[in-house]
Amino acid sequence: MSDITITRAVRMPDLFRIERSLSNPKLGPRLLFFSGGSALNGVSQTLKRYTHNSIHLVTPFDSGGSSQGLRVAFDMPAIGDLRSRLMALADETVLGHPEVFRLFTHRFSKSAGQANLADELDSMIAGAHILVSAIEQPMRTLIQNQLGVFRAACPPSFDLRGASIGNLILAGGYLNQSQELEPIIFLVSKLVGVQGIVRAVTDDNLHLGAELANGRTIIGQHLLTGKEHAPLTSPVKEFFLNAGLADKQPAFSTFPERNRSLMQSADLMCYSPGSFYTSLVANLLPKGVGQAISKRTVPKVFVPSIGSDPETAGMGLSDKVNTLLSYLRRDAGADCPVDRLLNFVLVDHNAEPDDFPELRELGLTILKLDLVTDQSAPYYDPVSLCEALISLT
Prior knowledge:
CATH topology of the largest domain: Rossmann fold
Strand content: 5-15%
Order of helices and strands: HEHEHHHHHHHHEEEEHEHHEHEHEH
Distance between the termini: 23 Å
Helix content: 25-40%
Number of domains: 2
Oligomer: single chain
Structural class: alpha/beta
CATH superfamily of the largest domain: CofD-like domains
Number of strands: 10
Strand order of the largest sheet: 3-2-1-7-8-9-10
Largest sheet: 7 strands, parallel
Organism: Roseibium denhamense
Protein name: CofD-related protein, GAK system
CATH architecture of the largest domain: 3-Layer(aba) Sandwich
């Protein structure tokens, strides 16, 4: 057996490939995304029209919002981004399970009292709640069991206000499956008919940390994004995985073999838009990710975020590309050729960065396409972005 590389001319957009995918999404291409947060959820919802085979590697390192309450209570990885991506890819048609989708996307009231919310949760566990009783067996019992495990392990101090029911079900499943994420993600994927594959990039219960150029050390994703707290006042010098939130304890994580196998089946890899460090680079930190990327000879595309990203203040496009390559090469090898890690940079046709020549010197192809519409601005139009990626497969 030998490996060969085949090249072809590409017309952008490739109407043939787009129509073929639209006509039979069950046989659509395997687009693999490195992402986290909610930035890719709109694209993921649209992507279901073109393929049911997309692969989403999502970071489990968030330390803010409702996910952090579960992390503190159960000493577990963050599941909020995994849950939101599962819901974005869920089959929302009558052929899926819309009643399960409604339960997973339901949130408890933010203003209700704790006792009332506990009663509502108990009614779900008993199967009496309208959102649960609407679900057919055996799915109803499976969901009740996961919520029951969560309820039994839940500390009295846990705040149910605003809690996502989907997160509570995932947390219960995590506790019920020997503290492993993969089994409950698989179960939820079947329950809501996920049209794609969603995986945590690693199962390890870790956090994110950064050393800034001014010498300051920041521990915790919630302190880095500039959303829940003030934006960073100095550029990121070093980005790393950390064992906890209390102080700097750099940690080691390994890319699971099941994810390596998935990566080797991808038809395209996309470094997705979103928070640059905490959503994208975070996916590249586990040992083995860069090596696995370098071994798969398919198109590799960077889609930089547009609009404001507090994590990259002062960084130009070439700065982001070189930072991306530097973290990939830490695992793939310092001498790994650029074309094994990245091939295309996809930007809107109105983009005019002054560092395009530097990117071309790296051997990268810059694709300038109509990716932002009046309706989507200041973000990418999901249809345009999906069709551009489909065209490259």
